[in-house]
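Hi R.,

As promised, here are both runs. First protein below:
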Amino acid sequence: MPRAKTDQDRKIFVLDTSVILYAHNSIMNFAEHDVVIPITVLEELDQFKKGNDTKNFEAREFIRLLDTLSKDQMIHNWTPLNGKTKGNFKIHMNPDSSINANMIFGEEKNDHKILNSALHLKQTEKNRRVILVSKDINLRLKAKSLDIQAEDYETGKIKNLSEIENTGKFILEGIAPEVINTLYDQHSVEAKHILGTRKRKSNAFYILKSEKNSVLSYYNAEDNRIERVDKRLAYNIKPKNAEQTFALHAILNPRIKLVSIQGVAGTGKTLLALAGALEQRRDYKQIFLARPIVPLSNKDIGYLPGDIKSKLNPYMEPLWDNLKFIQNQFKESDKEYQKITELVNQEKLVIQPLAYIRGRSLSNIFFIIDEAQNLTPHEIKTIISRAGENTKIIFTGDIFQIDTPYLDSQSNGLSYLIDRVKDHPLYAHIKLEKGERSELANLANELL
């Protein structure tokens, strides 16, 4: 954002509640420009301040931040933000405006009160640009219909999705046949014989091709060698394509502590992660498999019948389905079949909503987080920052299948993770491209 040359060039950004719940420190990220918080936003945040979800944390932290910034001043007037390069902020009381969004849209609601604040500022601050910032697409559209400039909150957004999509796997052609033969015979070769002067990315996977042959491989940055990647069974689950082979290699590699697996439905993300966890069950105290709760049709889970366990079961069923699929690879009399039942009964394998696990110690844990695209960047950071000794974390999801209204492919936590930690020696990422669930599922993904 270019710096304003004059006071009139300094913009006024009006923040919606969705921005605060996404990032409590968002008020500090508008350079030298001024920030307005409609009083309606504070009223909405008051309803979010109790609870253990990330949105509750963000609401509480923002309220504390405002209290610190106010320094006993009356914050309905312009109040300086911290730092010489920052602008000012103020709380905007419910205004009287010649244009009333409640009347225009035929309904009185908080979103329209926020629009009224932006309309009033536009009328009273005629020499300055007023911009509504919201992660709510519908609110932005309503603002634009009232001739109010509206933008998404861009801080932390991934600018180039193609870069993170291509992170992790590369195809190199024209490799000398003798190099590929050496990989088959000796399992590894020095990286310089294949990568030459190319940039070397930690834990990157390669499909190496000569005129007549090919081999799957992986760059071991610690030893500076390219190693052959073989198809391995994990609790009787066998990878069906190159990308699944790479994903399972990362899951089973003890050097790699953090893995992300991106792919559409039916590509085997969760199945591979769970199979890999079961294969390594002796190396960890517990296996946690969790996913965030995203209410169906924007309804709170309270509308579902039964106790809390009954309410949450529908959200956890896909995870149980994967476990049952693995278990059914064996006969009921097989020890592998019985071992899964034993792990569940002894709570050494736990399937729960993410909210139930958040805050727990994550030492000696194999932790799988499903549907990670529905997490915010802050939630991703919170989970990883709780990792103790001998913990491995696998995030799975599809960055283009967002189920929450205030995230998108560029701002969700999974995209953020892939972008920020790519090339780190503790991290590996792979994108699964081919659906393996069934021909019918592939038809849906490709044509519908």
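And here is the second one, sequence first, then its structure tokens:
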Amino acid sequence: MTWFKNWFNTPYYHILYKDRDFAEAENFISLLVKDLDLKNGSKIIDLACGKGRHSLFLYKLGFDVLGLDLSEESINHNKILAEKYGASSKVSFEVHDMREPIFGKIITEKVDAVFNLFTSFGYFESLEDDEKVFQSVDGILKDSGFFVLDFLNETFVKNNLQEEHTIVKDNITFKISKRIENQHIIKDIRFTDNGQDFHFFEKVKLHTENEIEMISKKFNFERVKLFGDYQLNNFDNQISPRCITIFKRK
């Protein structure tokens, strides 16, 4: 089993990351949809949607949203959440591997935008698998539709690597160590719960902004904007923490 199928389906993943800054994320998404000038009612896919909070926020902004994620646990949680908020007519969730086609397999209507946010790319070992993501997005977007890829800035990561730290959540002490190996950033996550030792890891390929653009050119995409942070400041290779690329389908 690949690391992401294993790790994302455990309750510990959600414990470790439960205190993410949703205010920052919602502000980023608000700025993003305004910059893209997406009209009320536009159809958006939240690709690798996780626990669905951003999908629901897009729904609250007036969009028709489909959240896709590989984790069955997350998708089941999201469907219940959508029902709770009375949002199931305008936001839906399905289990899906982003490397597989969306058009014709999940839905048959093309969409205005696909968002892949908060480092949900670079998980795969082969370039071919990375390209399959772009191919899938290409197949589901309308002409002139937007693909937003929010990724790490490879240079910033290398220059600001925090090698070891500890986080305590729900009385569990997570010992985190990071290293860069063969152009991947690897995060080892070790902890003990109920007397049992656990070890999970995350592994993300450090694509540069140019490498991402080169992949896009194999499909029907043109890079139209490049931002460096969640306030949508211009990208600077040396100091920007993020590499947020806006592609338009030709």
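A quick note on the second one: The mean pLDDT is 95. Let me know what you think.

Best,
J.
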